[in-house]
Amino acid sequence: MCLDRLGFPPEVLHKANKRLILTRISGYGQPQENEEIDYYLRPGHDINYLAESGLLWLFTGETSGRPVPPANIIADIAGGAFPAAIGILLALYEREKTGVGKIVDVGIADGVSYMSTYFLASCQVSDQKASNTPFSLMHWSTLAHQCSSFVDGGAPFYRTYETKDKKYVAVGALEPQFYANLLKHLVNYDYFLQCLIISIGKTLIGSFGTRYLLIFVSLAVIIKFLGVCLLIQQFLSC
């Protein structure tokens, strides 16, 4: 829209050079015919795009109900810059075939909403009928469904834990089979298959809190040799 205001719309530029690849990154994309133009021309920042895409509510953490935007301006980068870069690469490829440039139009709010695909798919997994789901997977998916987002630190299998020596380990047992191995090595597995996420989380906090970091580093090595891809590593702070 900036070039349009200066008197250089895409059709004028392509008339001068048909091989030009024009890239437009805006908050809400470009209006189509008969659409309300004011909606697309609204100002916005990263937090606004996250909110309107529906993704901001995932960043509530495990205790606070107030959404907190991530510090890495994820909407601008992952919802704007990355799709634009991919679009340019595709346009370059097509230009090699046709000799004609393209317009790459990126709306950040639309781009960032695409990132919630994995989370929404996870919710669908947790809605499977028990009769068609192995018990270990059913338990894992039920826990996932209880979390606002099971990758935001609210799930016991994907979060950080403080150790006895006041250090931290990052546990990434995201898949059901890895989560099962986490329970087998740290708690009473059979008992906790019957428990809700709150009980499991509290018990794991206690389990990690009574051991030193070095123990978990060693445990991670042992588990790795057992063929279990369970990530337990030291959490480094700046």
TrEMBL record:
Q: Does the keyword 4Fe-4S apply?
A: no
Species of provenance: Mesocestoides corti (Flatworm)
| A Pfam family it matches | CoA_transf_3
Similarity section: Belongs to the CoA-transferase III family.
Keywords assigned: Membrane, Transmembrane, Transmembrane helix
Please report the name of this protein according to its UniProt entry.
Alpha-methylacyl-CoA racemase
Instruction: Kindly list the GO molecular function terms attached to this UniProt entry.
Output: catalytic activity
Membrane-spanning intervals of the chain: 73-93, 212-236
